[in-house]
Design brief:
single chain; 950 residues; mainly alpha; five-stranded parallel sheet; three-stranded antiparallel sheet; 11 strands; 61% helix
């Protein structure tokens, strides 16, 4: 067992191989369990000898032993051989090969009773002999014939038919002036070959014999070279880091490491993307049937051409073959976010988004990859139209309506390419042992890349199999893997081939995974789908069969999995045979885990008031260790799962689970708020709101309306905010949700204050505060105490304002809410400034700014910088005020906050005017006026809105 692990140290040794090592034939039915027990015993013995407990780790489908090079002679031997290959000096090469040979003590794996390991031992001994032979040949050329003659004699005795060794020994004997012995040795070898093998010596050896007879001067020994260099081969010097890219948009998927063939298609794409080529086309469409490798080709070609597009590469999956092709408007929003346009700065209309997208790319050299396009209308809005940009598209159909597009038709691999792909995956030695079986397997696969990868994956996962075993399994046409539209073969038949070889729980898992939609999924989903806590092996089985792909590792270190679109379609068909109740129960289990993880993630974010109290939806927890690992970086987890959060809401809506739908939509509101993800926020809330209202779910509808109300406030859409918040209040009162009512009334007070209705705003704050105090909700009370202070400050009631600010600050600190404390300090600064104490005001603001920047809260950072600029402006300090206000304006512009951006430009204009810079003052004031006019048009009023953060 230990020998089998050491042979493949630092690599996974498959369970099938370990079984074969322990039982050459006739393995018992309990073989896997016995291997597991043996490994456990081996671990205990090694730990007892002082080894770390992590020395042997469990891996998918096997085990792995972890060793440093210095701990294993085989690793050291391989390392020295690798170093020898890097040398250019024969002296250094010979010295390094000597160090490699010094790692050996006798034959490999001596006295190890296993037929499987005997093969490995023979391989290792052959490597040793080859290394020894190479070393002696180099030393012979260095004039060291006297030193190597004894070793060559022993080596020839062990390998009596090796004519290369015989040749080296004859040369060494000749150079030692033992010409007669060299000739006698040749004669003995000639007779041995003739009598035992029926062959003559090879021409090189016969030629050497004649040269020795003729005493060829060229055979004379060269001058001996002594003193091999002790300097080890130098490692390649690390390249100096290049200059940082001005726009680091690098979205291309991972390249396929074993990409083969497609030379003509790659050359054509390269020519189309080459800006200096006369036949350059700005749009290239790779067209082909499912499974032919369109995406792999385009990704490989895009990476090869990336140097021609220094401003970056955008990648968008249009998902045309899925149940829900991606809307071009949503795709444009995704592209704009990649180009640093976020929040309400992303226009609402399709044409406006497309225009902004084209404007951003007009002076850039970027490559846009549109994967899995369905029709021209889906693609046209995503074309940059800029001379320096190019577009690569994959599609199953011709997109003839795209102007200037060049189409490249992609078919299955050529026979030689298919064989190269197959050989590259399973290894040349296995193919060379059974070349006829390899050809038969490729014929059964129809040279379709998808089918070849699945077949190869089975062989890689089963190293003990011969190729004949797989050929016999796929010879039956009804079980064969094949291309979707290649004769009478189909992708369904390809999937069925794997399904027939899978256990029932793996088939069930695959069918249920298909129902989760075209998303990249975390591995934990299989557990709740099957209602099992030990579902990792089922997932491993699906990965081994290439039915589920391990696509990447996300930003928090979690592996991501995805079903190929074709396989997912077949999985959904299989799921159609399951009872509807079983499928719904599985969906509820998965969604309830999502809901529980959302709660854990929100609890670890800076506190906010948008998170609603839990509803009645079920919750299901993962093991604490798993949850803690996922939530070590809550923002990172939410970032990684953004698409799945939308998919979870839609899944709940599709299955009629309105309670789960609204909780899944409302749960991430705090995350959306901090990240300013207004598009995500609105889309998910609207989707769930329709379901809640259709089901008469008043509680869910009130929460979602309140979330939309806050979103409309951020987007300066105050009339819409008023409408949805009034509806939310009415539903809260009907359902007795006091906290929800207080929050909705408080949001309405913000609308009143921003629109200049101060008395109404004060009345609403007082109403909301009374409810919060009555309910004992200290978080809401802290927020509204601060709002009361702001209102009193606006009324010039400074003493009362201070009382309310002090109360709010005390509550925030008691709640250990650093974000709320920073908000209070930011607003408290206005009171200090009004009282003529700018130093204290700035102290509060710097403390608040540090908190907001640490929490990556860009919106509150902008508010704080606005206040900093305001304080410095009050001191006529243009040098300090200007940079703060300009930075704040940039943040507000980034997130579509027009009113606060307008305030910044107005203050900058006032500073310009005070400094006598009247032209600049007019420009900045006009900019502020245009923004206020836009707000007025949006809300059917001509009055300029007050800033939302007084």
């Amino acid at each position: 067992m230990l020998a089998a692990l050491l042979i493949d140290a630092n690599n996974t040794v498959a369970m099938e191989r370990l079984v074969a090592v322990m039982w050459d034939v006739g393995a018992p039915t309990t073989a896997v369990r016995q291997v597991q027990d043996a490994v456990s015993g081996l671990r205990r013995n090694l730990v007892a000898c002082g080894a770390p407990s992590s020395l042997i780790s469990t891996r998918r489908g096997g085990y792995e032993i972890h060793l440093d090079r210095e701990q294993l002679d085989l690793l050291e031997f391989d390392h020295e051989r690798h170093l020898a290959e890097q040398h250019t000096s024969p002296i250094d090469t010979a010295a390094t090969l000597r160090r490699a040979l010094a790692c050996w003590r006798g034959n490999a794996l001596a006295d190890t009773p296993s037929q499987v390991l005997e093969t490995d031992a023979a391989r290792l001994n052959a490597q040793r002999a080859a290394t020894h032979k190479e070393c002696l040949a180099i030393e012979l050329d260095l004039g060291r014939h006297r030193e190597v003659i004894d070793e060559l004699t022993v080596l020839f005795r062990d390998h009596p038919y090796d004519e290369q060794v015989a040749e080296h020994l004859m040369v060494a004997l000749y150079r030692c002036r033992r010409q007669g012995e060299a000739l006698q040795m040749y004669e003995r070898l000639r007779r041995t070959l003739a009598e035992e093998l029926g062959v003559d010596p090879t021409p090189p050896l016969r030629t050497l014999h004649q040269r020795i007879l003729a005493a060829d001067p060229a055979l004379a020994a060269p001058a001996p070279v002594r003193g091999p260099s002790d300097t080890p081969p130098e490692s390649p010097a690390p390249e100096a880091p290049g200059a940082a890219m001005a726009m680091p948009v690098r979205q291309l998927p991972f390249d396929v490491p074993d990409f083969v063939g497609r030379a003509e298609a790659l050359a054509e794409i390269s020519g189309l993307l080459d800006g200096s080529a006369p036949n350059r086309a700005p749009v290239a469409v790779v067209v082909g049937g499912p499974g032919v490798g369109k995406s792999c080709l385009v990704t490989h070609a895009a990476r090869l051409a990336s140097a021609n597009f220094p401003d970056g590469q955008l990648y968008l999956n249009l998902a045309a073959t899925s149940d829900e092709p991606r809307d071009p408007g949503l795709m444009l929003a995704e592209a704009l976010r990649a180009l640093s346009i976020v929040g309400s700065a992303i226009p609402n209309g399709l044409s406006e988004r497309a225009a902004l997208y084209r404007s951003l790319l007009v002076d850039r050299h970027m490559l846009v990859v549109l994967d899995d396009a369905g029709h021209a209308d889906q693609v046209l809005p995503l074309l940059p139209g800029a001379e320096g940009c190019a577009v690569l598209i994959t599609s199953r159909t011709l997109l003839t309506q795209l102007p200037g597009a060049r189409h490249i038709d992609l078919d299955v691999l050529r026979p030689a390419e298919a064989r190269e792909l197959f050989t590259g995956i399973i290894g040349r030695r296995r193919v060379e042992r059974e070349p006829g079986e390899a050809d038969a397997i490729l014929d059964c696969c129809g040279n379709l890349p998808l089918a070849i990868r699945i077949a190869s994956g089975k062989l890689m996962g089963r190293p003990a199999w011969s190729l004949r075993v797989l050929r016999e399994r796929i010879e039956d046409e009804s079980r064969r893997l094949a291309e979707l539209r290649l004769g009478d073969l189909s992708v369904r038949a390809s999937v069925e081939l794997s399904l027939r070889l899978l256990p029932a729980d793996a088939v069930r898992a695959l069918s249920l995974l298909g129902l989760l939609g075209p998303h990249t999924l975390p591995g934990w989903v299989v557990g709740p789908l099957l209602d099992r806590s030990d579902a990792e092996e089922v997932l491993d089985t699906l990965v081994d069969a290439n039915l589920v792909r391990l696509t990447a590792t996300d930003a928090i270190g979690e592996p991501r999995y995805r079903l190929h679109d074709l396989i997912r379609t077949c999985a959904v068909e299989i799921a159609a045979t399951l009872p509807t109740a079983d499928k719904q129960d599985a969906m509820v289990r998965v969604l309830s885990v999502w809901l529980d993880l959302i709660r854990h993630g929100t609890d670890r974010l800076p506190a906010g008031l948008l998170a609603a109290a839990p509803g009645s939806a079920p919750r299901r927890s993962l093991p604490d260790a798993v949850t803690d690992r996922l939530m070590a970086d809550p923002f990172g987890w939410f970032d990684a799962e953004r698409d799945n959060l939308l998919g979870a809401v839609k899944l709940a809506v599709d299955w009629g689970l309105d309670e789960l739908a609204w909780e899944l939509a409302a749960g991430p509101a705090t995350y959306y708020d901090h990240r300013c993800l207004y598009q995500d926020w609105q889309h998910r809330h609207r989707l769930a709101l329709d379901a809640a209202e259709a089901a008469g779910n008043a509680r869910g509808a009130s929460v979602l309306l309140r979330g939309l109300g806050q979103l409309h406030i951020y987007q300066d859409e105050f009339d819409r905010a008023t409408h949805v918040l009034e509806s939310s209040i009415e539903l809260c009162r009907d359902s007795g949700d006091k906290r929800g009512e207080a929050l909705s009334v408080a949001m309405l007070s913000t609308v009143s204050r921003v629109q200049g209705r101060d008395d109404e705003a004060l009345e609403r704050v007082e109403h909301a505060l009374a409810i919060a105090v009555g309910e004992g909700d200290l978080h809401v009370e802290a927020q509204l105490s601060c709002s009361m202070a702001v209102m009193r400050l606006m009324q010039d009631q400074l003493e009362e304002a201070e009382t309310w600010f002090t109360r709010a600050l005390r509550l925030a600190r008691e709640l250990d809410d650093e974000h709320r404390e920073a908000v209070v300090l930011r607003r408290f600064s206005r009171l200090h400034d009004r009282r003529g104490d700018p130093d204290e005001a700035l102290r509060c603001l710097w403390q608040a700014l540090a908190t907001f920047e640490e929490l990556s809260d860009e919106r509150c950072t902008g508010y704080t910088l606005l206040e900093v600029g305001r304080v410095y402006a009050g001191q006529d300090d243009r040098n300090q005020a200007g940079p703060a206000l300009e930075r704040a304006a940039a943040l507000f512009h980034r997130h579509g906050d027009r009113q606060d951006e307008a305030t910044c430009w107005q203050l900058i204009g006032d500073l310009d005017a005070a400094a006598g810079l009247h032209d600049m003052a007019r420009q900045h004031r006009r900019r502020a006026l245009r923004l206020w006019e836009t707000i007025g048009e949006m809300n059917e009023t001509e009055a300029a809105a007050r800033p939302s953060s007084p």
